[in-house]
Amino acid sequence: MGKYTAFLLILTFFSSCTLMMNKRERRLQTDIISKINAQAPNLAKCAKSARLFKAFDKTRIRVVIDIAIDSNGQIERFKLDEKKYPERYAECIFKVLDIISFPKVEKGEVIELKQPFIFSKK
After folding, report:
1. How many helices (H) and strands (E) does the chain have?
2. Structural domain that includes position 52
3. DSSP reduced 3-state for 20
4. pLDDT per residue as tens digits for the range 16-45
5. How many distinct structural domains can be found in the chain?
6. Which of 31, 37, 53, 83 could form a disulfide with 8 if both were Cys (CB 3.0 to 4.6 A apart)?
């Protein structure tokens, strides 16, 4: 990753309530987290290529990715937190996430996920 590092934090929102998850939901959560975590180097490359640290004049930036995954394992909704990110950064993040094969779930089911990352310039 060179001079840039991404740290996967914790899953803050899964479906409706993390405390009420059953075994199936926990397996889905683990699968989704590991798939997103595997892309952390590519997410960090997005921060570097979009000059995110320069844009915000910071050496450490917290980004929250908000996605909804449909029953086919495709991204139904994608957005970043309320910061004014460069457009090319958001596009890069979406492209990285869009190539992930998320698990398919029951027809009509949607998995909503807010995933925080911290990117650090080193």
Report:
1. 4, 5
2. 4-121
3. helix
4. 344 456 788 778 878 888 899 899 999 999
5. 1
6. 37
Task: Return d(Cα 68, Cα 38) in angstroms, integer.
Answer: 19
- The secondary structure of 53-106 as a DSSP string is HHHHT-SEEEEEEEEEE-TTS-EEEEEE-SS---HHHHHHHHHHHHTS-PPP-S
- Which H helix or E strand runs over 31? helix 23-38
Confidence label for 95 from pLDDT (cuts 50, 70 and 90): very high
Determine if the pTM surpasses 0.90: no
Contacts of residue 6, Cβ cutoff 8 Å, sequence gap at least 6: 40, 41, 43, 44, 47, 117, 118, 119, 120
Give CA–CA dist 11/31, Å, rounded.
Answer: 12
User: Residue 110 CA to chain centroid, in angstroms?
Assistant: 16
List pLDDT tens digits, range 41-81.
999 999 999 999 999 999 999 999 998 899 999 999 999 99
